[in-house]
Specification:
57% of the residues lie in helices and 0% in strands. With 65 residues, the chain is mainly alpha-helical.
Length: 65
């Protein structure tokens, strides 16, 4: 007897809500990543459009020891 008295035979609404929450969370994370990536590309394009040639950030190697 695994059925609950208030929900005979139907899907568990908590499970559907949890799946919806996970989908929304994934969409928020992907959207945030896209906004950050597009903002960085936009800054690089703005720099290049202004005629500068040293727009890419320089990544110095970490000093060991």
């Amino acid at each position: 007897m695994s059925e609950t008295p208030g929900n005979p035979g139907g899907p568990d609404p908590r499970r559907a809500a949890l799946v919806g929450l996970v989908v929304v969370a994934v969409l928020v994370c992907v959207s945030y990543y896209l906004v950050v990536a597009l903002r960085a590309k936009g800054r690089l394009e703005d720099c290049l459009a202004s005629g500068r040639t040293n727009c890419a950030p320089i990544e110095a190697p970490a000093r060991a020891g």
